[in-house]
Amino acid sequence: MGSCKASGKYGFGLVVLLAGLILLGGNLGLIPEHIYNVIMRWPMILVAISMISFINRDWLAGLILLTIGSYFMMPHLVDDFSMREIWKYWPVLLIIIGVAILRGKRKKNAPLHYHSNSDDYIEEITIFGGNVTRIDSKNLKGGEITSIFGGSEINLIDAELSDNGATIEMTAIFGGVKLIVPRQWNIKIEVTSILGGFTDKRVPGGEGVDASKTLVIKGETIFGGGELVSY
């Protein structure tokens, strides 16, 4: 398990490093503008995450994400490649979904992974699986949650925000993220959805809300979803 976490951090670090180099090259004019504009499109997020999957030796997830990312990048890479032509290949999506369903059935009886975490910074990556994590940090500063073809449930009922609040970056791609928060927390949602959604299902009413500390939820849902609930 430790080696898996290490490889996950290595893969994420490598992607961040490459992203920094690309952004720097674009700002300094070292990368041609037409290439830079292609790289900065949203399908490259899928390609980047596929790299992490390959490093983690999750070949199926990496292949699926790379295929989907490449599919949506084709109109920007080939000049005479029209959307009419790209739809000739739409059955590829069915093939990918079928593979995902078969893989899911194979793991149907596998239990969810339950664990607790006292760290002040959340690092949660779920690919083709499910995690339920209970956070009991008394100085929560933020974190990163990634769910790809899987589901993550983060329970923050026993946690407390730091004096400066906290910021959580979440990414859901063909997956879902569920955040359970205390009712008195002040929440600010800044999530961008692309053919997905993020739903605030908290009970209406702001009685007892502590406005001095704020949990900011940022990120993207791409063909995926997220929800915020309180008990």
Automatic annotation (TrEMBL):
It comes from the Bacteria. InterPro entries: LiaF-like_C (IPR024425), LiaF_TM (IPR054331). The chain crosses the membrane at residues 12-32, 44-74, 86-102. Residues 12-108 form the LiaF transmembrane domain. Keywords: Membrane, Transmembrane, Transmembrane helix. Residues 139-198 form the Cell wall-active antibiotics response LiaF-like C-terminal domain. This is Putative membrane protein. It comes from Natronoflexus pectinivorans.
